[in-house]
Each structure stands twice: as structure tokens, then as C-alpha cells.
Amino acid sequence: MIEDPPLLTVRRGFPRPSAAQMAAFAGAPTGFVADAMNGRGALDARIKPVGRTPAAFAGVAITCHAGPADNLALFGALAYGAPGDVMVCATDAFGATAVTGDLLLGMARNRGLAGFVTDGMVRDVAGIEAVGLPCFAAGVTPNSPARNGPGTVGMPVVVGGVAVESGDIVVGDADGVVVVPRAQADAVIARLAAVRAAEADLDAKVKGGLQLPGFIGALIDAGRFKLVD
User: Which end of the chain is less crowded, N or C, counting CB atoms within 10 A of the terminal residue's CB?
Assistant: First the structure.
């Protein structure tokens, strides 16, 4: 590296989804949201709720990138985040130290953030549970980070194999986390309505005794299966 980078590079003026767009995702199961995105959008399956923290949330991504064994970027995201934001922290899946614990997440709760998501590790599970902020991580370790930088806030990151930009919509529940690019929000919302209706229809049929979906019978009748007796 020719010269030392700044401790943090911060992008503050990113566009945000509207209140109406966010309302459309309130209470939406991640499976429905993924279906509305052609079965995609979920972060790596290892990123799951930590302990007994609440699992359901929907918010606006404020991204940060923390280097190995460092979490200065998280404090930057804390400073520039707004109520309803979800802090999405990229660590390049670094697993040797935690990126945060209960104290920073308690401050995030106090500032009105809606959740925390990282592809790295966290610690202080009992304290995180007491804070009550939805916290999703790839794992837990007692090892602690430093606060030296460099890092970024508000810039594009990749977390759990998915590209995330500040202003994207982040939805989480017990199944995992799905990211909806802000530019695709209206199209996903339109498809989400159809997914909800189809799920409700099939759910009613299953509860009414449905044993096989119609498409299986149609494929059998059309001779599309090779039967070997």
C-alpha cells in the first residue's frame, strides 16, 4: 500500500426506500420475499439469529466493512445510522474474533436501529439476548476485536455471498436474512402480493385435506414420468 488509508471512508447521502415501500415488507416471511425474487436474495445459511434474540425484522441497510479483528466501522455506522436502519457488517467472513458484543448492540437499540447482521462473529450471547435487538451472525466467539480501521460505512459490501448497498431493504426471521435491492423494491412488492395470495390459497387447501398438488397429477397424466416397476 503506497500510503495509509483514512480510518473510515463514509458515504452519508445514500437514497432510501419510502415509508410505503418499507410498510409492504413489514411482517413478510423471508421465504415469501425470496419467492418474490425468483427464489434468491438470502444470505449464506450460516447467518442465523444469535441465541434467543428476536428473529423478525425489516429495515433499511446501513452497510459497513470491518477489517480482520477490527470493528471501528461498526461505530461509524452507529454514528451515521438512522432509526429503522439495519447495520449490515461485512468482515469477509473473518472468524477468529467477534466483531461486536452486547454493549455496541445496546447503543444501536438506543439509537433506534432495527437489527444487526454480519457474516462474522459476535460475543456476549446472554447480554445480546438482554438487549433484545435482532442479531444475526455466522457464529460466536469470546475473542475481541480492536478499533483501528481502516473500514467503510455506507459503501457497497458483500455479506454472506450477497451484494448489499446502503438503502437496500433487509428482512430477517428465524429462517435467515433476505436483501431486496432498493431499485427492485416496487417490482418485488408487486410479486410479493401474488406470493401471499398463492400461499394463502395452498395453505387453505392443505388444511382442507389436499394430498398432492395439481401439477403432479398433470405430469403423471401427461406421461412425463418414466415408471420402472
Answer: C
